Amino acid sequence: MMKRIFAGSYLGLLLVMLYAPILIIIIFSFTEAKVLGNWTGFSLKLYRSLLVTGVHHSLASALWNTLIIGLIAAFVSMLLGTMAAIGIFNLRPRARKAVHLVNSIPVLNPDIITAISLFLLFVSLGISQGMTTVILAHISFCTPYVVLSVLPRLIRMNENLYEAALDLGATPFQALRKIMLPELKPGMISGFILAFTLSIDDFVVTLFTIGNQGLETLSTYIYADARKGGLTPELRPLSAIIFISVLLMLLVINRRAAKNKS
Amino acid sequence: MQNSESIIDIGHVSKYFGEKAALDDVSFTVRKGEFVTILGPSGCGKTTLLRLIAGFLTVTEGSISIAGTDVTTIPPYLRPVNTVFQKYALFPHLNVFNNIAFGLNLKKRPSDEIKKRVNKVLKMVGMTDYEERDVDSLSGGQQQRVAIARAIVNEPEVLLLDEPLAALDLKMRKDMQMEIKAMHKKLGISFVYVTHDQEEALTLSDTIVVMSEGKIQQMGTPKAIYDEPANAFVADFIGESNILNGIMIEDNLVSFAGHQFECVDKGFESQEPVDVVLRPEDLYIFDPSEAAMLTGKVTSSIFKGVHYEMVVLTTEGYEFIIQDYHCFDAGKDVGLRVKPSDIHVMKKERLFNTFSGTVVDKAHVRFLNQVFECAEASSFTLGSTVSVYIDFKDVVLFDYEEDGLFGGDVKFILYKGNHYHLTVSTHGNENIYIDTNDVWDTSDRVGITFAPGSIHITNINS
């Protein structure tokens, strides 16, 4: 009995320490104070000024940029990664191993190395940096993750499925569309979500490839804001909204996974 | 060349995977409506052959035609054949109905026709009312039925089946065998069936093609293959058999196991070494008497359900397996007898190991990509090409690969009554044949050596 209480309270303490910073931000997003930690009574003013009045236009546009970059990068890397995974799977064992290794290097490579090399690449090719370069950079580091989430599904798939489709009269393209893609869909979706979160989250690579035309994503905006001294109070409701959306997304995914299993 | 009756023509087909030949010059014909089984141990090339017919692989050499059309370079989706896969390969995201309708949907058949045809085949495989079921919720046998239904709904000219029953348990397998046979009769199309189960092949087929090492060993009706095996491999693989070394004395007289026997085989040379096959059920076993051709002692006796299986060690030291309804206990003295027509004599495929080599110096010869000491080399000119002969019993095997001059894997073991005849495959894919009294297992890794005095050479031109 004592043991159980002890174990429970230990877990509780751990969770509180993990989530306390987020909880504090959520709580203080419902007050007007400029400085975090002062409670000046319940208010939705910060939410209003973030979402409606558009006082902080630059923050809203940074959020917008982040979402666009994330969606495009995640979608393109989902397509590229899936095609790459199918290609890798059909290689001979030795070549497959080699390409698999090459695919894992960007995953393990420190962000700063990826960032500097992409920066040098764009500069040496004379490409002016902006939205396009950020998207290209994000695609390049997201694609390997999609490969890693699609490949296990291919390996677990019945090896004769593709042949069975051909055997029943499907052209290679029809077999891909009607049999392979539905089979790989769960892997592709999780690859997409992974790529999207990685893209939103990224700071280092974005900073090096964003150029100096005034383009901002959330991470670069917050960084610049913090350097100017003091964070904009509207960041509190924004963090709360992002956290709640991610939490909801996770709940939905888990619910679906549980349903598929039963 | 086209036979109006034939539906599949395989002409001199070879298939190489890199250096290795999976199929080596295979030719045969499947007639319309025939049930052909391709039988062989794993790795004999039987699945490769089926995949070539289906079009999943392309031939290295030779040609394949189906229904009078050369399909050698035609992709699988344009061939008039359908395949039932060993692991079913049902589409997991489609239900039973949509799995079966897949081929018809691709052909854009009207939906009422699809419904009618799917229901018809579902009834045929005994799966009516399963249309809406998820394929993952079905048992192995049910999945196999759906896989068969999915193939035959397209009304192919030929149905290809790749070990379709291998994943089922024994009872289920027997039931499905009967159903497949009935289905074949009802559909009237040709079946090409791949299996490693000789009993399944004997039960189902009109014609059996026995394969080993990428080559056809024998082709014929189940009865012909069982009664008149073409060589020791076929005799050993189909059914149980006693295979012994013998010598043909003259027409209708063969010597083996230390005695001479009357037989019905002729056309061999006098004193020609042969393989003799006796089926266990063809040997008569009884208490010692004047009628005995061989005498011996029972060393083991096992009840097998219908009959007893006994091992008898003869006075001359040869072991025989005998199946009989009467039980003779271990330790009992018995007499054996066999009818002349039940003695099957086969030509030997080879009498010794043969390699081609070159003389490198006065005391060495090179073959199997290696240099061996050889006493006879002194009488040959340097660099001359020679044939190398080594007796089966002069090959020395070691437990460890490092102890031999080179290594290999035991591929095939044949018990010859008083010794074992092994086939060992070297890493360079050459076969070496060995007679030994030691017990080895298939896929044992062994070291191999030849004694210098046992390597015989002759000039290739002489």
In short:
By secondary structure, chain A is mainly alpha-helical. Chain A is about 80% helix and about 0% strand. The mean pLDDT of chain A is about 90.
Please render the helix and strand layout as text:
The complex is a heterodimer of chains A (262) and B (462).
Chain A: H1 2-28, H2 45-53, H3 57-89, H4 93-108, H5 111-124, H6 131-156, H7 161-167, H8 172-201, H9 204-209, H10 218-227, H11 235-261
Helix pairs in contact in A: 1-11, 3-6, 3-8, 3-10, 4-6, 6-8, 7-8
Chain B: E1 6-17, E2 20-31, E3 35-39, H1 46-54, E4 61-66, E5 69-70, E6 81-84, H2 96-106, H3 111-124, H4 140-152, E7 158-162, H5 170-187, E8 190-195, H6 198-204, E9 207-212, E10 215-220, H7 222-227, H8 232-237, E11 242-250, E12 253-256, E13 259-262, E14 272-278, E15 283-286, E16 294-303, E17 308-314, E18 319-324, E19 333-338, E20 344-347, E21 353-361, E22 364-367, E23 370-373, E24 385-390, E25 395-398, E26 406-415, E27 420-426, E28 431-436, E29 445-450, E30 456-459
Parallel strand pairs in B: 3-8, 3-9, 6-7, 7-8
Antiparallel strand pairs in B: 1-2, 1-4, 4-5, 9-10, 11-12, 11-14, 12-13, 14-20, 15-19, 16-17, 16-19, 17-18, 21-22, 21-24, 22-23, 24-30, 25-29, 26-27, 26-29, 27-28
Helix pairs in contact in B: 2-3, 2-4, 3-4
